[in-house]
Amino acid sequence: LLIYLKLIERMENIMLQKLICILGESGTGKDTLVKKMVAINPKKYSPVMSYTNRPIRPTEEEGREHYFLTDIEFKMKKEMSEGNIAAYTKIGDYEYMATLNELHNKLFYIIDPNGYKNLKENVGGRYDISTIYITSSYETRKKRALKRGDKLEDFEKRYNAEKEQFREFVENEEYDYIIQNEKDGMIMSFFKFQGIVNEILSK
Fold this sequence. Notes:
Elements: H1 2-15, E1 17-23, H2 30-40, E2 50-52, E3 66-68, H3 71-80, E4 85-91, E5 94-99, H4 100-103, E6 108-110, H5 113-123, E7 127-135, H6 138-147, H7 152-171, E8 177-180, H8 186-202
């Protein structure tokens, strides 16, 4: 009976679309790791594009990292998407949201712990969700943030805004996999990331 139940569970997981949630504080290199996978096979490793009212960074492009909206546009999009929101979160002054349509046939979703909780509440039973937590030291994160054009004041503000939710996320070990991604180890981090993704897809 136990073997039969496990087979049923495996068949149900196979039928569900896999969704790999990538979590990590600002500057941990999570976007870079995902972009490297997308470059290998854009269709297979397609990421979710969320909507945000955060200002676009110098290194970002519209529709590549997010859909960047004004405060008014974001409010209108959220109201129009009522009943179709897969996940919503707010970090400091900025809001992020993804619709159910955006999740269709996508593999990666870069998201924060609060957004991840909201995602599980909204669509948890409709997707085979795995989580990879990317972490780096404070100094490494700060250097990356400044290099991509962030102001130190903005980095510190985001650091304080997301600190508590990540503390709880880590303490409760809500992730399936973890990667320590320091400045000099990006190549090794990517190989580890690629291996984890392949493992998830093979299940």
